[in-house]
Amino acid sequence: MATTINQIVKGDFYGIGVGPGDPELLTIKAQRILQKVDIVFTPKASIAADSFAFEIIKEYVHESRVETIIFPMTKNKTKLKKIWKDAAKQIYQKICEGKNVAFITIGDPFIYSTYNYLLRHLINLDNTINVCTVPGISVVNAIASLFNVPLAEGEDRLIVTSLPSHLSELKKLIGQFETVVLLKIGKNLKPLVEFLKKNGYENNAYFARHIGCSSQVVVKNLSELIDDKKEAGYMSTMIIRRCERKI
């Protein structure tokens, strides 16, 4: 049977969750794949910024195999769509060259991750690509382990959500769920802490930032957070228990 000279042998695509920050929380499967692929794409917020995801895996991947994709921090949906589409084209080009390609993302690929949108655009380009997504330890699991706080027991209800734009919505969530895990707190940390104190939840909340990194912040006494702006940020997480659990 004749073989077409111009037939394209495509590489495989791997989406890899690299965990919350501690390199020791990188899974064995993630390590194995990262060591064998031809190219590792890592996200950055800007050209000048460091790649938080790459810092986690740098022990396993030489920089010569790393390429950067810039994902600026913006909420403009039109700009975001173009960024994701361009990133997918950049990765697809390498796949069509027969390269096995990995894209790394902090935490787990399918929990508030850029990977969701990137994968969607990549599949729109070519739905015959062989895709393998490798789960990672999420910041949700990591913060619970830091404080030894159960996320759910028995018939408890658990919700993982970004911080609502209106704190009145948060009050409803606390009323509906025994455990609320907040991500993407950002610059709203101070009003969030004030809200929790006002409503009597200051002793039921657990805060952490940059889990597993040298800059890690772990706080149980929420009053310590109000005047420290550097403790806010995109990498902040909080567990709120409706009732403080006694062992």
Task: Tell me what the structure shows.
With 247 residues, this protein is α/β, with parallel strands linked by helices. It is built from seven helices and ten strands. It has a five-stranded parallel sheet, sandwiched between helices. Helix 3 crosses helix 4. The N terminus is likely disordered.
Task: Break the fold down into its secondary structure elements and pairings.
Elements: E1 13-17, H1 28-36, E2 39-44, H2 52-57, E3 66-70, H3 77-96, E4 101-105, H4 114-125, E5 131-134, H5 139-147, E6 158-162, H6 167-176, E7 179-183, H7 189-198, E8 205-209, E9 217-219, E10 236-241
Parallel strand pairs: 1-4, 1-5, 2-3, 2-4, 6-7
Antiparallel strand pairs: 7-10, 8-9, 8-10
Helix pairs in contact: 3-4
